[in-house]
Amino acid sequence: MRTFRNSAYASCLNADKSSPYHRTFDVRSVGHCGADCNFQEKARHINFGEFFWCSKGSGIFYLGGKCHTLNPGEVFFYPPGSVMNFSPSEEGMLFFWVTFFGSLFMPLCSSLNIHEGKRFCGAPPEELFMELISAVRRFTPDRRIDILNLAMPILMKIAVGASREEPVAHRTTAQNARDMIEREFISPLFNVDHIARLLGVHRVTLCREFKKEFHITPSDFITGCRLRRAAELLERHQYSIKEISQMCGFSTPEYFATVFSSRFGCPPSQFIHLTGKK
Predict the structure, then answer these.
(1) How far is CA 220 from the centre of its chain?
(2) Which residues have CB under 8 Å from 241's CB, separation 6+?
C-alpha cells in the first residue's frame, strides 16, 4: 500500500487530445510518494516517459525481461512505448517521479544521452520537485513555459548524473545526521527514529550526541529547517498554506499552523499579510 502520495497532473492538457502541445514537449505529471512492500504498481504500457528518483529505501524495476534494484540516489527511466512495472523492496521506498510527453521528448533525451534503465544522479532535488508539483497542480496553458522552466533543471540533473561519493570516515554521527536533515526534511515521514535507523545508532545516542555538538535536539532542528523553508515560501506569495505545509514536510496544514504560530507568534495567514501580500 502507499503510505503517502503528493502528486499533480496537468489534467486539462492531457484531456484535450487535439491540443497542439501534444505534438511538442510538456510535463504530464509529477509526484512524491512513499510505498511499503505491499504496494504493487500494475504493469502497463505507457505512451509517455517516466523518471523515478529514489530518495530512501529501494525498489525493484522491471524492463526488457530484466529486473533492476533502484537504490537511493538512482534514477530509473521508462521511455514511451515501454511497459512500466515496479514494486518497493521489503524496506519500502520513498521516491519522486515525473512524466513527460510530446514528439520532442525522446529526441531531447537522445541529445542529452539519457537512455532507458537506471543511472546514479545523487540526492533528488527535492525543492524543485515540490515546486513543480505545486505548479502543475495549477496548470493552465499560459503557465506551460513556467512549468517547463521548473522541470528542465530536473531533467538536466538526470542528464549530468553524479559520481558516487565515498563516506567520510572522520565525520561524527551528529554531523551526518545534520546533513541528512538538511537534505531530507521535506519528507513527511522523516523523523528522529528514521535517522537513527539509517545511521545504525540508538535514538537516545543520536539525540545525546546531536544535542552535545549542536546545542539543539534533532527533532527541534528538523522543525527549524521546515519552518525556515516555510517562511521563505510564504514570503514569495506564490503558494497556498496547504501547499506550503506539504512542501515543507508537515503532516497537515493544521499542524503546520500550530507549529508556525508557536515559533513566529502568528499563524501563517497573518504572516502572509504582514509580509505584504496584495
Answers:
(1) 22
(2) 234, 253, 256, 257, 268, 269, 272
**Which pTM value belongs to this model?**
0.69
CB-based contact 79:106 (threshold 8 Å): yes
**pLDDT digit string, tens, across residues 194-249:** 888 878 889 999 999 999 999 999 999 999 999 998 998 888 888 889 889 888 88
Burial (CB < 10 A; 0-12, 13-18, 19+), residue 129, is buried
Which residue, of 160, 184, 210, is where some domain finishes?
160
Closest C-alpha to 99, from 78, 83, 114: 78
Same structural domain for residues 87 and 136? yes
The DSSP call for residue 278 is -
43 and 93 Cβ atoms separated by less than 8 Å: no
- Give tens-digit pLDDT for 60-77: 999 988 889 999 999 999
CATH code (residue 266): 1.10.10.60
Does residue 165 sit within a domain?
Answer: no
Indicate if the alpha-carbon torsion angle 131, 74, 192, 222 is positive or negative: negative
Do 126 and 25 sit in the same domain of this protein? yes
**83 contacts 35 by C-beta, under 8 angstroms:** no
Return the pLDDT at 189.
76
What b/e sequence results for 226-261 when a residue is b if at least 16 CB atoms lie within 10 Å of its CB, and e otherwise?
bbebbbebbeeeebebebbbbbbbbeebeebbebbe
- Cβ(37)–Cβ(58) under 8 Å? no
Q: Which single residue is written with the C-alpha cell 572522520?
A: 170
